[in-house]
Design goal:
The protein is α+β, with helices and mostly antiparallel strands. The protein has one domain: Deoxyribonuclease I, Chain A (4-Layer Sandwich), CATH 3.60.10.10. It is built from 6 helices and 12 strands. The strands form 2 sheets. It has a 6-stranded mixed β-sheet with strand order 3-4-2-1-12-11. Strands 5-6-7-8-10-9 form a 6-stranded mixed β-sheet. The N and C termini lie close together (about 5 Å). About 45% of the residues are buried.
């Protein structure tokens, strides 16, 4: 069972790139982020034409997450619990072949001086940890939480650690909350299988030749519960879509679980 996460940075604008990647990679499950469209505008016909079911939690012009699957999608939850006033479409979860999966678009958090931005990010991470601890981990199902976490876990995951030290993606408070997630019993799939590979990235900004110079960030992650981690066979970053014409600034990260 191959599960991939991909921040598409507007599913309509990147649709040719998304469709060609789906055809080439053939993942069983895809967790999409930053759709930037409402549910009714999601390109369902094109996606379903490739054999995927789709569950969408969209938002006009911003955010938006989805789950695609070649297998039936069951028991869908839209929105992260813990704050009924939060209307941002950043979280969707469902069960596929007995595995509970979630697509996560964690807030960026910049500028850090703005509580509506950085405070929201930290509170969102605390809500996620509470949901994982109270609901997801106590269940019998293996859990895979994939998405754009907007977190560089260590200095090995950013091309210029000193230059990014005060950014919301790298600040100690951000990294501490990410570690709290892992300390609940989650395994970060890529790092588990590539413990010594530094400066491998999943995001490159469009400006200043960042892609050409490989000046990127590793902010897209797959976190696995113990039951899922026991089945982990492979995990890698697929850089091929980022080199195409008019790509997303992110590229897919995937893992494979034994059946």
């Amino acid at each position: 069972m191959q599960i991939a996460t991909f921040n598409v940075n507007s599913v309509k604008a990147r649709l040719p790139r998304v469709l060609e990647w789906l055809e080439a990679a053939q993942p069983d499950v895809v967790l999409l982020q930053e759709l930037k469209c409402v549910d009714d505008e999601f390109p369902r016909l094109e996606i379903e034409g490739l054999g995927y079911n789709a569950e969408v939690h969209g938002q006009k012009s911003f955010n938006g997450v989805a789950i695609l699957s070649k297998r039936p999608i069951e028991d869908v939850r839209r929105g992260l619990p813990g704050d009924q006033s939060d209307e941002q479409a950043r979280y969707i979860e469902a069960t596929i072949s007995g595995v509970r999966v979630a697509s996560i678009y964690l807030p960026n958090g910049n500028p850090v001086e703005d509580d509506a931005k950085y405070g929201y990010k930290l509170r969102w991470m605390e809500r996620l940890a509470a949901h994982v601890q109270d609901t997801l981990l106590p269940s019998e199902a293996p859990v895979v939480l994939g998405g754009d976490y907007n977190v560089c876990p260590t200095d090995d995951d950013v091309y210029d650690p000193d230059g990014w030290a005060d950014d919301a993606l790298c600040k100690p408070e951000t990294r501490n909350r990410f570690r709290r997630l892992l300390n609940l019993g989650l395994t970060e799939a890529y790092r588990a299988l590539h413990p010594n590979e530094a400066h491998r990235y999943s995001y490159w900004d469009y400006v200043k030749g960042r892609w050409q110079k490989d000046e990127g960030l590793r902010i897209d992650h797959l976190l696995l519960s113990a039951r899922a981690a026991d089945r982990l066979e492979a995990c890698d970053i697929d850089k091929s879509p980022r080199g195409k014409e008019k790509p997303s600034d992110h590229t897919p990260v995937w893992c494979r679980l034994s059946e």
